[in-house]
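Dear H.,

Thanks for agreeing to be a second pair of eyes. The structure we're designing against is below in token form, covering all 326 positions.
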């Protein structure tokens, strides 16, 4: 099954300032501010929703096609993704803008000064699915994850025109979307995915009740953080799936993306919704235990065993067969 993952591709540059911002900021001088903080630690993390999600799927042996816009600085990141099994041939490279970047400095009190540069992501609206569908000889399923708002709308429209089943994943972009934009994104979607907060926001923005959302989208997944996930389907009983307890807490960044990776891998293998969510929950646990959204590692046997410990031997056997292990 050919899965295409569209959305943001970005890097986070995280610095630590071993002092207090407040000691360098003068209230009376804010009009003509010019400060520089001497950071003693820099970490560059690969991220962006679409990149994280494709990376996770590739860790489970799939070869998803990543679709998004980057800048001429993408070479290193591309080779990382290629090396880890992601198809990056349909990533659009802007000649003018750099890859989206989040730059954040944290002081010793935990205060943060951050800037997000969307950069090349704005060019994602220029991407057309036609040539990608031709290169891949068909797209069986497409994910629309957070991206330039124009790109998200265009991808949804093109999926409807081309009859490509898609998952609508507005995530953090929801807060800047109006009623029409949300309705447009979910129209014709095969699946809507959101967390609890986003679920409430969808109802607020659209004025639709949960029932009315299900009349538009046949499957809706709501992730509930450490409480698991709820899957509602039109005309069927809801399914609840628990979590895989983390062995240690390192950094929750990317946990939602990891759940999506596992869920989509399950779909690509033809699993039912419950199994898909169990695979998502297992992958999410690895991310919680690791600093950075693409730094976790596991063996396929280890993954299947861990899933089996929580969800039972049938679940383990089914997943192990897809991972081609005993
Ligand atoms: N502390 C945890 N321990 C184990 N699993 C977790 C934990 N938190 C989240 N998960 C798993 O990850 C899934 C997604 O989590 P969550 O609902 O927090 O996503 P999110 O709010 O979209 O996250 P993000 O901050 O990445 O956007 C949950 O359904 C669950 O399976
Ligand atoms: Mg999220």
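And this is the sequence the design step returned. I haven't edited it by hand at all.
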């Amino acid at each position: 099954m050919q899965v295409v993952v569209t959305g943001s591709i970005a890097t986070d540059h995280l610095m630590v300032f071993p002092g207090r911002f407040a000691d360098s900021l003068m209230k009376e001088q804010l009009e003509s501010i010019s400060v520089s903080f001497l950071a003693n630690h820099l970490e560059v993390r690969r991220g962006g929703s679409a990149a994280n999600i494709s990376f996770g799927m590739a860790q489970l042996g799939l070869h998803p096609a990543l679709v998004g816009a980057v800048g001429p600085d993408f070479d290193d990141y591309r080779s990382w993704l290629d090396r880890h099994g992601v198809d990056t041939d349909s990533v659009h490279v802007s000649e003018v803008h750099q890859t989206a970047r989040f730059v954040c400095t944290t002081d010793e009190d935990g205060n943060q000064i951050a800037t997000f540069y969307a950069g090349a992501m704005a060019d994602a609206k220029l991407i057309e699915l036609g040539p990608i569908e031709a290169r891949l000889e068909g797209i069986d399923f497409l994910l629309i994850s957070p991206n330039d708002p124009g790109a998200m709308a265009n991808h949804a429209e093109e999926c409807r025109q081309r009859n490509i089943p898609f998952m609508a994943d507005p995530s953090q972009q929801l807060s800047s979307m109006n009623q029409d934009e949300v309705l447009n994104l979910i129209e014709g979607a095969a699946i809507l995915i959101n967390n609890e907060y986003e679920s409430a926001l969808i109802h607020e923005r659209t004025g639709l009740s949960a029932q009315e959302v299900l009349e538009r989208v046949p499957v809706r997944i709501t992730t509930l953080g450490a409480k698991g996930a709820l899957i509602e389907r039109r005309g069927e009983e809801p399914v609840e799936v628990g979590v895989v307890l983390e062995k240690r807490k390192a950094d929750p960044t990317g946990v939602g993306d990891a759940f999506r990776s596992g869920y989509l891998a399950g779909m690509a293998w033809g699993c039912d919704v419950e199994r898909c969510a169990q695979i998502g929950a297992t992958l999410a646990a690895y991310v919680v235990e690791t600093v950075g959204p693409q730094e976790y590692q596991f063996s396929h046997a280890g993954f299947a065993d861990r899933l089996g410990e929580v969800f039972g031997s049938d679940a383990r056997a089914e997943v192990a067969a897809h991972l081609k292990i005993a």
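Two observations from my side: The radius of gyration is 20 Å. DSSP finds twelve helices and 14 strands in the chain.

Warmly,
E.
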